[in-house]
Amino acid sequence: MYELFKNLAKWLVSGDQWAGTDGIAHRIAEHLEYSLLATLIAAAIALPLGLLIGHTGKGAFLAINLSSFGRALPTVGLVVLVFLVSGLSLWSVYVALVVLAVPAIVTNTYAGMSAVDPEVKDAARGQGMRGHQVLFQVEIPLALPLIMTGLRLSLIQVVSTATIAAYVSFGGLGRYVFDGLAQRDLVQVLGGAALVAIVAVVLDLALAGLQRYLFRHRRTAAH
C-alpha cells in the first residue's frame, strides 16, 4: 500500500505527466470545459423553470416528478443512447450531464422561492410593486442562498460524472480512469480519481467563497 501511494505521488508531480495533449493540465482543462458548459446549459434551462414555478405556484408536482425522473436515469446508459443516435459527438456527453444537473437546480430554486414568506410578498405588492418587481427585487434575493446551493450541488455532480466522456472516446480526467483500467495500471486509475476529487473540492470551495462574499456584501449594504 505504501508503494502504491508513493507511486501515485510520483505520478501526480511528474513534470512529464503534466505536459502535452495527454498531460494532466490538458485533461483538467477538458474536464472543466465539459463540466462548466454542461452546468451553464442546465442552469439556463432549470433556473427559469424553477423561478416560474416558485413565483406562480403552478406546475410544482410536474417539476418535482420530472426532477426525480432525471435523477433516476442511468447516466452511462443515456450517454450510450445519445451516442448511438448522434454518432461520434460530444452531444452525448453534454445531454447526459445536463439531464443530471437540471434536477438539483430546479428543486432548490423552487424550494428557495417557496420559502419566501407570503406576507413579505404581500407587503411588496401593497407598496405598489408589480409581479416582475416582486420576483426580481424580493423573491429572488431571498431565495438566492438555496438557488446557489442548487448550483453548487449540480456542478459537483457534473464534475464527478464528467469522467463518462472518456467512455465514448473523448477526453477529460476520465481518460486516466478508463485507460488505466484497460491497461491494468492502478496508479493511473487512482491518479485520475484523485484529480477528479481535487477539482470538485476546489470548485465547491470557490463557489462557497463566492456565496459568502455575496451575502456578506448584501448584509453590509443592508446595514
From TrEMBL:
Keyword Iron among record annotations: no
SUPFAM superfamilies documented for this protein: MetI-like
One Pfam family in the UniProt entry: BPD_transp_1
Domain of life: Bacteria
Residue stretches spanning the membrane: 34-53, 155-178, 190-210
Membrane topology designation: Multi-pass membrane protein
Keyword terms, alphabetized: Membrane, Transmembrane, Transmembrane helix, Transport
Domain ABC transmembrane type-1: 28-211
Compartments where found: Cell membrane; Membrane
Family per record: Belongs to the binding-protein-dependent transport system permease family.
PANTHER family: GLYCINE BETAINE/L-PROLINE TRANSPORT SYSTEM PERMEASE PROTEIN PROW, POSSIBLE OSMOPROTECTANT (GLYCINE BETAINE_CARNITINE_CHOLINE_L-PROLINE) TRANSPORT INTEGRAL MEMBRANE PROTEIN ABC TRANSPORTER PROZ
Protein name, entry field: ABC transporter permease subunit
Naturally occurring in which organism (per UniProt): Streptomyces mirabilis
